[in-house]
Amino acid sequence: MNATTGKSVIMERDLPHPPEKVWRALTQDKLLEQWLMKNDFEPTAGRRFAFRAAPMPKWDGVIACEVLEVEPLVRLSYRWESLGLKTVVTWTLTATNGGTHLRMEQSGFPSEEGAFYKGAIWGWQGFIGKLEQLVATLN
After folding, report:
1. Is the pTM for the entire model greater than 0.90?
2. What is the span of the domain harbouring residue 112?
3. Residue 107 φ then ψ, to 5°
4. Which of 27, 86, 119, 139 qualifies as a FRET site for 3, CA 20 to 30 Å off?
5. Which long-range contacts (CB under 8 A, 24 or more apart) does 59-67 make?
6. CB contact at 8 A, 17 and 122
7. Taking the C-alpha atoms of 43, 100, 120 and 45 in order, what is their torsion angle to the nearest 10 degrees?
8. Sign of CA dihedral 79, 82, 87, 90
9. Residue 6, CB half-sphere, CA atoms under 13 Å: how many?
């Protein structure tokens, strides 16, 4: 399944923080590690990197990624490949009067019924909650 077709997981939040703070949490490797996973991320289109979590049965804990698009303070997307499923994660930031509207879309799931899709919904709810907490602590 191509990551540009299929079903998407979409999460949106209105954060009371400027886009600059949110962008830092999305693009600085040490901050990413605090709310998502260990990584060797750099916000450069074409850059290959990996997210690393604790291995589990039938999963080595590695998510292979490649940065697809970087538009500072506005949009970030990367290919996300794990257990043979290739999806695309896209973050969109929109400045608002009260801070930032954050939209995350992970696209390319074969259906809404599968374990990958349901796991992504569960996982992103927790990750985005941690992101919100981290951004609130940044100067």
Report:
1. yes
2. 7-137
3. -110, 155
4. 27
5. 59/83, 63/37, 65/41, 67/41, 67/42, 67/43
6. no
7. -20
8. negative
9. 22
Amino acid at 110: P
Give the SS3 label for residue 79. strand
In a domain, 2, yes or no: no
Structural domains of the chain, count: 1
**Tens of pLDDT, residue by residue, the chain (139 residues):** 445 568 999 999 999 999 999 999 999 999 999 999 999 999 999 999 999 999 999 999 999 999 999 999 999 999 999 999 999 999 999 999 999 999 999 999 998 888 899 999 999 999 999 999 999 999 9
CATH code of the domain covering residue 107: 3.30.530.20
